[in-house]
Design goal:
Layout: E1 17-18, E2 21-22, H1 33-55, H2 67-78, H3 84-94, H4 99-120, H5 125-144, E3 156-161, H6 169-180, E4 184-188, H7 193-202, E5 207-211, H8 218-231, E6 236-240, H9 243-246, E7 258-259, H10 263-280
Parallel strand pairs: 3-4, 3-5, 5-6, 6-7
Antiparallel strand pairs: 1-2
Helix pairs in contact: 1-4, 1-5, 1-8, 2-3, 2-4, 4-5, 7-8
């Protein structure tokens, strides 16, 4: 996982693949294999459940792939050709496939099918990890091409801490600093993982700030970010806290948009990101 996405190959960091092995570029090698397996399994399960349920109300049979199409896409996600799955999606977009079909038919459909294979032991750990990395890389690429919808008051964000984090004073301080600059900050701490994902997914926020203090929180942090990504693929996620100084390789371990070393840097970054979003869609300024 990197600051850009769960990339695969091409020398980029992430859940990487190199001659069929994982982590040879030094990205997730610090995490125990059991933790990586748990994350990979959670990614597949959450993609299937969260993507399908979030898009189902707007979906239809037209969004679903045929069994053959689904099998071909799953094969593309796990085959040696690192770019094959991306080409499938590029071709689908060129042919006029809707975003609902991409997320419900291709991504959620493939995640569900791969999840079944995971449960049946018909896909290896390496295949599942590669597939999940490619799915996230493709979703990341699509997210970059879309400007998130912003309400009239676009200066608002959701701040929280990793579940189990007791050092939450910094979250409150940062929230107050943002508020003094005109931001509307919702702060939620002392919540479970499931509660945080639910609160964020049902909110209007596109900015998410997560604080963590210790390197042993990386697995929990990575899982929280991944689930929030699934619920809101276009969200802008920032991580702060003492962990940013204790773990210099943090950007290679989590799929985050920005690592804030201090509150002032965080404010400057979010203000600039907000302006970039608004300039990309001037009508939102009205």
């Amino acid at each position: 996982m990197t600051s850009d996405s769960l990339h695969t190959g091409n020398g980029e960091a992430g859940l990487t693949e190199s001659n069929g092995s994982i982590g040879q570029t030094g990205t997730l090698h610090r995490l125990p294999e059991e933790a990586i397996t748990e994350i990979a399994g959670d990614i597949i399960a959450n993609l299937a459940d969260s993507l399908a349920s979030s898009l189902a109300p707007n979906g239809s049979d037209a969004d679903k792939l045929s069994p053959l199409q689904l099998d071909l896409f799953c094969e593309a996600l796990t085959c040696p050709d690192q770019q094959r799955a991306e080409r499938v999606i590029d071709q689908a977009i060129l042919s006029g496939v809707s975003m609902d079909t991409l997320y419900l038919g291709y991504f959620a459909g493939a995640a569900e099918r791969l999840g079944e294979c995971w449960e049946d032991d018909t896909r290896t750990f390496v295949e599942m990890t590669i597939a999940s990395g490619r799915l996230h890389a493709i979703m990341r690429k699509l997210r970059r091409s879309m400007v998130p919808p912003l309400p009239n008051n676009s200066r608002h964000a959701f701040f929280t801490a990793v579940p189990g984090e007791y050092h939450t004073l910094g979250v409150s301080i940062a929230a107050d600093m943002f508020r003094r600059r005109g931001w509307d900050i919702e702060v939620e701490t002392s919540k479970t993982h499931k509660e945080l994902v639910s609160l964020f997914s049902r909110s209007d926020h596109q900015f998410l700030g997560i604080s963590a203090s210790r390197p042993d929180m990386i697995v929990s942090l990575a899982k929280l970010i991944l689930d929030c990504r699934v619920s809101k693929p276009r969200a802008h996620i920032m991580v702060s806290g003492h962990i940013t100084t204790l773990e210099p390789n943090l950007g290679n371990l989590i799929d985050v948009d920005y690592i804030a070393r201090d509150a002032h840097a965080a404010i400057d970054h979010m203000e600039q990101t907000r302006l970039d979003w608004l300039s990309s869609e001037p009508a939102k300024l009205l």
